[in-house]
């Protein structure tokens, strides 16, 4: 058993944990509203217990989307780090899979297409992470 098999398993574990940490940071800094608040636009009449500051209600601008949670500092820095590391891991996994298929079988168009698609996805993830 190779140590390289840990890499595909660690990619979703690392990225999912990182996204939840970014959400927790955004919630702690009151940049987004909590997920369990389903009274957006109707919560403006009363102040929510977790919000202290100039914004007293949850509007549609404060919905905790992944890209919204990673927009403002300090969580934007961690969001960029998660996305860049995840993109590097995707590139490495697709390259290792490409080499594995060449070693076991002959090179084919589908193998080259999967390598290209993986690297395009990694480039897109880098763009999302670094240009919010």
From TrEMBL:
Keywords: Membrane, Transmembrane, Transmembrane helix. Its main location: membrane. Residues 4-132 form the CWH43-like N-terminal domain. It holds the Pfam family Frag1. The keyword Transmembrane applies. It is found in: Endomembrane system. The chain crosses the membrane at residues 7-28, 78-96, 108-129. It is a multi-pass membrane protein. InterPro entries: CWH43_N, DRAM/TMEM150_Autophagy_Mod. It comes from the Eukaryota. Belongs to the DRAM/TMEM150 family. This is CWH43-like N-terminal domain-containing protein. It comes from Ataeniobius toweri.
């Amino acid at each position: 058993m190779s140590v390289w098999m840990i890499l595909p398993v660690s990619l979703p574990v690392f990225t999912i944990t990182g996204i939840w940490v970014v959400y927790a940071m955004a919630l702690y800094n009151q940049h987004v509203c909590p997920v369990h608040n389903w009274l957006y636009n109707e919560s403006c009449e009363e102040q929510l217990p977790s919000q202290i500051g100039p914004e007293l209600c949850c509007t549609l601008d404060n919905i905790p989307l992944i890209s919204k949670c990673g927009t403002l500092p300090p969580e934007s820095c961690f969001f960029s780090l998660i996305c860049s590391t995840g993109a590097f891991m995707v590139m490495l996994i697709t390259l290792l899979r490409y080499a594995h298929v060449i070693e076991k079988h002959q090179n084919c168009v589908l193998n080259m297409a999967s390598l290209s698609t993986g690297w395009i996805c990694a480039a897109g993830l880098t763009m999302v992470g670094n240009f919010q």
